[in-house]
Amino acid sequence: MEEPEVLVYISDYNKECERVIQNLKKWKIPYEIKNINDINHMKELQDKGIYGTPAIFIKGVKEPILGFQKNKIKYSLGLLDNHISYYSSFFDGYKNDSK
To answer: Which of 10, 44, 49, 79 is most buried, most CB within 10 Å of its CB?
Structure first.
């Protein structure tokens, strides 16, 4: 299987950015980081119409993933069954509070 190309725009002292990076490491997914504290990286991101971090761009996925959306990231990386929606209860973190 070809490794996905992942680009993550982050900012300092952002817990969601830290969680994205921690999970990519845990899943052994190669990634590139661009910190928006570098004005050039900030401008790059803003030129894409995005003004917040984390912003995750995955090769072959049309839209970036904004924020830490664990199930959506895993689904987009092909780490889960692609025949099930990432909104499904089969994914991590789903809680049924109806009980």
So the answer is: 10
User: Of 18, 28, 14, 15, which Cα lies nearest the Cα of 6?
Assistant: 28
Contacts of 21 (CB under 8 A, 6+ apart): 8, 10, 31, 33
Max Cα-Cα span within the chain: 49
Mean pLDDT across 75-80: 88
Token reading at 6: 């992942």
Beta-strand ranges (E) seen in the chain are 6-10, 31-35, 55-58, 65-66
Place of tokens 């993550």: 8
Q: List pLDDT tens digits, range 17-27.
A: 999 999 999 99
